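Question: what's this shape?

___
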Amino acid sequence: MGAGRAPTRYAACPHPSPPPEGEGERQDASPIIFSMTHAPTQRYARVLSIAGSDSGGGAGIQADLKTFAALGCYGMTAITALTAQNTLGVSGIHGVPPEFLKAQIQAVVEDIGVDAVKLGMLHAPEVVEVVAWAIDRYQLKNVVLDPVMVATSGDRLIAAETVQVLVRELFPRALVVTPNLDEAALLIGHAIDGIDALDAAADELLALGAKAVLLKGGHLPGDDVVDVLLQAGGERKRLASKRIASRNLHGTGCTLSSAIAAHLALGATLPDAVEQARAYILGAMAAGAGVKVGAGHGPLNHGFAPVPMHRLPWSPSASAG
């Protein structure tokens, strides 16, 4: 090297060995580029979807993740089953082994933590049992159970023997259960004939062990859609809205339940979470009504009015584990 050249200064993170001979001396006082200088002060609202995958993207975990993101929450998944489906229907279901479902839940909860849970397609008794174990093991709160049994296309998505296990294991563990009319009919053993029958049907569902029931009346005829929210303490609320004419209704149940979970994760009470979730889904339905996706029942427009990720105060009690 020629005389007069200044020695090289190593300003990166500490190097495991001295600089090569002739390259100058390492400077101990050099600044460290990468370092953690502040303790965390914020976190995201974390929502876990334990549900099936919809390859068409309109329902299942795909709809859940879109909803969580649109409402400013951090979404995570534990996939229960893969489905081959599109806007015309379901052509195949491939269940995830229960032990791998358990591994997914453990990986997420033990590292990231969970503020609310949405439960969707749970197709087999052993899958239900894994979810019940996880709720108890990790003391999961704000659990929204959407008892997915029949797709918009009419395809059956749950084995008959699973229904009894679902009711026994998850109704008492969930904060709210959100069946549509077809699902409610399977659960209580008879059809629900009209709006006047909604209250009695909600009572029957609550008697199965649920803490609260949101019975969705969207499949009933009429210009208005009426849902009933009934809580175990006896508080009953009817929520009505004008029907939105649309063929794109695939994933409405998944979207509503995941929106409820998102608002619960953000700190809303159950009645408020239900009202805000209904407002979101009505907007998503209206925004997607004039769009053609596929040849059958298309999806909602989940991203019609997205909000930035909410940041909540961080504390050790809110961390994982």
About this structure: The CA atoms of residues 125 and 161 lie 7 Å apart. The chain has one domain: 45-292.
